[in-house]
Amino acid sequence: MPDTWPLRRGDTLSNHDWFPMYGHRFLGSSFVRKAVMQRRRADIGTAIILWTEAMREDPAGTLPLDDEELASLAQFATVEEWLEVKAGVLHGWEEVLVEDDRAAEPYRRLGHPGFMQGVVEEMHKRKVSRDAGREARNLSVRKSRIKKKMEELQLASHIVEDGAVLHSLAEFFDQSDLHITHDNVRTAMAEVLGYTGEVTRFPAGGRRG
């Protein structure tokens, strides 16, 4: 029975233009050694093409089972040409199961539990780290804009400076996709915080009720 890594439909890296190439590991691999000894150096280039294509597949790091699709991905003119090199080029690839939330049963593709698995796992870690950094920056920007609106509404300083309040309001705006305006800040404070106090702008130098 095929193994899983685990693999799941939707785990893609299609927006990445590069992936790490472990040079020493590659040059010392049995794949390269056999290709050179059998005078099939062209298989190495074809394998690299498929590795690159696999990074754009869903899930990342896998290939289809169908030979017509593989021939196309490997940039062969005919399936017959592909079949002549298939055994050597797919060294290390094997059937794996892919989980699909939309289906009752997993389906099968080709995966490479050696080289490709390590590359994909590293790239997913980079993606998670990058996405987390982007979200943290976006959250900081939202908090800053919300705080500015609250100051313009002349709310009490202990509310404006409360980090938990700003965080809750920032999450509200993230989930609602509302623009951060004075009126929407009022709405957010009422819905998220239950704040029913006077939230209107006072003239400069005026008193706050």
Tell me, what's the shape?
elongated
Q: What are the secondary-structure elements, in order, as H or E?
A: EHHHEHHEEHHHH
Please summarize the sheet with the most strands. Answer: 4 strands, mixed
**Low-pLDDT windows of residues:** 199-209
Cα(first) to Cα(last) distance is: 72 Å
Which value, in Å, is the CA radius of gyration?
Answer: 27 Å
Measured by DSSP, the beta-strand proportion falls in 5-15%
What does this protein look like?
The chain is α+β, with helices and mostly antiparallel strands. The chain has helices spanning 23-27, 30-37, 42-54, 67-73, 79-89, 115-152, 157-160, 163-176, 182-193; strands at residues 3-8, 62-63, 94-99, 107-111. Strands 1-3-4-2 form a four-stranded mixed β-sheet. A hairpin with a 7-residue loop joins strand 3 (94-99) and strand 4. Helix 4 crosses helix 5 and helix 8 packs across helix 9. It is elongated, with a radius of gyration of 27 Å.
